[in-house]
Amino acid sequence: MEDVTDPAFRLLCKRFGADRVYTEFINADALVREVSASTRKLTISDEERPVAIQIYGREPESMAEAAKIVEQAHPDMIDLNFGCPVKKVAGKGAGAGLLRDIPKMLAITKTVVNAVHTPVTVKTRLGWNDEEKIIVDLAEALQDCGISELAIHGRTRCQMYSGNADWTLIGEVKNNPRMHIPIIGNGDVTTPERAKECFDRYGIDAIMVGRATFGCPWIFEDMRRYLDGKEPVERTMLWCVEILKEHVLRSIDWIGDERKGIVHSRRHFANSPVFKGLYDFKQTRIALLRAETKQDVFDIMDGIVDKWEKHHYGQDIASSQHDYE
User: Fold this and answer.
1) Dihedrals phi, psi of 73, to nearest 5 degrees
2) Cβ pair 30, 38 in contact under 8 A
C-alpha cells in the first residue's frame, strides 16, 4: 500500500469506520539514515488512532534501531512487514523475502520486540510458494517471539496478487489451540458479504482490507452496516465524486504541491469502483490520468456526474451535495 495509505487517505478511511489504519511501509535502513522521504511517513495524528506504523527491512539490528525511531512518533503499534511480495523488496531479502529465511525473520521479530515498549505486530503470507505453506508453524514461532497480533495474507509470495486468496490456513491458524494472540485475515475481502463470510467461516478476530479501498474509503461503512444487519447506504454518483474531490484536496494539502498531490492520488480517483461499468469510460480515465491541475480533474469528474445523472434521471440536476442529502 505504498503511496496509498498516507495521512489524507487514512483520515477518510477512519471517518467511514475503519477500526485501525496503517501507514505506508517505511524502509528501516532509510529511517536510520534519516532520509527525509521516509521520516515524513512517521507523521500521524490523534484523529487516526489507533494507528500502526509499518516498517520493513532485512537485518535485526537496523530493524530494531528503526523501531526505536518509530516509537518516538508514539504509534499505537509497530507493524513488521514480512508480506510485501514485490521484487524490489522481497528480492532483497525483506518483506516476503524473509519467508525464505525463517530464522532471520524470527531474529528480527524478537530483537524488535525486545527493543521497544510499544506493541509489535506482524503481517506475512502463507509461505514462499505452494510447496512451502508454513504459516501454521510460523504463526506459533512468531507468537513465541512476543508479538501482540498477526495478520495473514492468504497467498504465497510467488502468487503475488494473482489467483484467489486461500483462507483455509488462516482459519487453521486461528483455530489452533496453541494460538492466543488475535489473528487478522487479509486477501480478497472486497465486499461486505465476503467480510461477513470470513468472520463466520474462519472465526478470525478482524479483517484487513487493502486494494478494495482504492477510491472507495466508504467501503468500511458498507461492511460495518452489513455486519450489523443494517440496510446499505444508497449513494449518488455526485456524493462519491465529492469524496474523491476531498481526497485530492487533502493530498495536495499534505504534499504541499498541486501537481504532486494530484499524481499521488491518481490511483484512487482513476480506479474508483464508482466509475466501473460507465459507458465509454476508457477515454475519460485516460484524461483523468493526464490531468495535472485540480480544476482539470474536477471538471472531468463533474462531466462524469452530469452524464450519469442524465442517463439515470433523463434531465439536468443541479450539482450540489445538498440536493442529495
Assistant:
1) -85, -5
2) yes
77-82 and 149-153 as β-strands: parallel, antiparallel, unpaired?
A: unpaired
Q: Tell me, yes or no, if 145 is annotated catalytic.
A: no
Per-residue pLDDT of 57-107, as tens digits, reads: 999 999 999 999 999 999 999 999 999 999 999 999 999 999 999 999 999
- Alpha carbon 150 to chain centroid, angstroms: 15
What is the grid cell recorded at 114?
525486545
Q: Looking at the predicted structure, is the pLDDT value of residue 114 above 60?
A: yes
User: Sorting pLDDT into bands at 50, 70 and 90, what band is 314?
Assistant: low
8 Å CB contact between 270 and 285: yes
Which whole-number Å values give the CA distances from 313 to 185, 236, 317, 322, in the listed order?
41, 12, 8, 17
Helix, strand, coil percent content, the chain, rounded in steps of 5: 55, 10, 35
Residue ranges with strand state E in 182-301: 183-186, 206-208
In this prediction, residue 320 carries a pLDDT of 40
Residue of higher predicted confidence among 313 and 141? 141
Cβ atoms of residues 64 and 109 within 8 Å: no
270: which DSSP letter?
Answer: T
Cell of 56: 520493513
Strand residue runs (E) in the chain = 21-22, 26-27, 51-56, 77-82, 120-125, 149-153, 183-186, 206-208
Task: Indicate the SS3 state at residue 278.
Answer: coil
Which residues sit opposite 54 in a β-bridge?
79
From the candidates 84, 158, 216, 240, give the one annotated as an active-site residue: 84
Beta-bridge partners for 208: 186
Residue with cell 499505537: 76
3-state SS class at 52: strand
Q: For the chain, give the percent of residues with pLDDT over 90.
A: 79
| Interatomic CA distance for residues 48 and 325, integer angstroms | 26
